[in-house]
Amino acid sequence: MLKATEPNSPEKLNRIVEGTHLEGTINSDSNIRVDGSVKGTVNIKGRLVVGPNGRIDGDVVCENGDVEGVINGIIVVNGLLSLKSTARLECDITTKKLAIEPGAVFSGKCVMGGGVIKDIKQSINDIDQSRQRAGNLKTQEG
After folding, report:
1. Is residue 2 part of a domain?
2. Contact 75, 91 (CB under 8 A)
3. CA distances in angstroms from 117 to 41, 48, 127, listed in the order given
4. Each residue's pLDDT tens digit, 18-63
5. Has residue 38 been placed in a domain?
6. Residue 73 near residue 60, CB atoms below 8 Å
7. What's the domain range around 70?
8. Closest Cα to residue 45, out of 4, 91, 77, 87?
9. Per-residue pLDDT tens over the stretch 96-127
10. How far apart are CA 71 and CA 74, in angstroms?
């Protein structure tokens, strides 16, 4: 049972409400719910919930995630990523487990299973390397 003093307990929930627009990097040891919009990098050591009106344009690293809204970028999830029926993702996904409800839309590539993400900084480095490879491929094709 989680205690209120633990960083990932439900009582330690950060919220970005509808009508709020953030730009930059978000780092949190607790859970976060996004019903507004975020442009930038989101590093969460807890659960990320993107509500039906929520939107993230950027890279995401989290322990677990429930997505009802929109994510454009790269998402790395250590545990379970759940895409609800209203989810719209245009991104590359790396996750241990993936659940997709009928109606969810996902465009990108997905790597599933494997070991636990040991370090968020390493995950960000992997994201940067993935983007560099994608940029090199576009340069070679063009």
Report:
1. no
2. yes
3. 17, 16, 13
4. 999 999 999 999 999 999 999 999 999 999 999 999 999 999 999 9
5. yes
6. yes
7. 13-141
8. 77
9. 999 999 999 999 999 887 654 444 555 666 66
10. 8
Is the overall model pTM greater than 0.70, yes or no?
A: yes
* Three-class SS state of 48: strand
| 8: in domain | no
Q: Are 112 and 97 in contact (CB under 8 A)?
A: yes
Q: Is 135 exposed, middle or buried (0-12, 13-18, 19+ CB in 10 A)?
A: exposed
Assess contact for 102 and 118: CB atoms under 8 A.
no
- What's the CA angle centered on 55, arms 32 and 58, to 5 degrees? 85
Token output for 26: 């978000």
> Per-residue confidence at 13, pLDDT binned at 50, 70, 90?
confident
| Structural domains counted in the chain | 1
Query: Residue 73 falls within a domain, yes or no?
Result: yes
- pLDDT for 112 equals 87
102-127 burial, b at 16+ Cβ within 10 Å, e below that, comes to eebebeeeeeeeeeebeebeebbeeb
Rounded Cα gap, residues 84 and 70, in angstroms: 11
